[in-house]
Amino acid sequence: MTSSAALPDATRTDVETLWDYHDMHHAVQSADVGIGLGSHDLGVATCAADLYHQGVFPLIAFTGANAPTTVSRFPRGEAVHYREHAIERGVPAEAILIETKATNTGQNIEHTRELLAERGIKVRSAVLMSRPYQQRRAYATCKKLWPEIEVICASLPMALDDYVKSIGDPDRVINMLVGDTQRITEYAKRGYAIEQPFPSDVRSAYERLVQAGYTSRLI
């Protein structure tokens, strides 16, 4: 593993394979609401603000309490900090709802669905915004828990190397990619998400990275 600010050459191809796998490659289209999933990555809120200004959706719902990895970065909660960031980027406060109790992706979806229903907001389509490597898991989870809506996945457009530089910790990014890859199959088995294709090249890349020691985010 590496402690430098760049991906190690020995694992680059495998990391790129997983990075591309988790990107759903959806074309962003107009939707009833944009849902920003809480995490350590403020780029989710930036993405939401950018798409709002492009007229993709008229309303943003940010969802997220805290996880051990975010409490120091976002002490008032992920959704609260996301909202503040979006307002700083020119989104009107009245165009933002927040859900502050969710601590995992399933709860993000369930609690946001409940919040919108309580407000009488009918949702037929949503743009689900997340970290780049969370797209596939977010999609599979949403289609399990909220199957009747059209789901489009989006993230802040960023190349892998630029994303690694923005986080400043290649090991963290690789470990999160490996962890999310495991969750694609494990969560489907546990009934948390719908099944997703798992091509052989993705499986092989995942297994090599596990063997290389990137296991801190495995369940």
UniProtKB/TrEMBL annotation:
Residues 45-156 form the DUF218 domain. InterPro entries: Cell_Envelope_Assoc, DUF218, Rossmann-like_a/b/a_fold. GO terms for cellular component: plasma membrane. CDD domains: YdcF-like. Pfam families: DUF218. Coiled coil: none annotated. This is Uncharacterized SAM-binding protein YcdF (DUF218 family). It comes from Streptosporangium album.
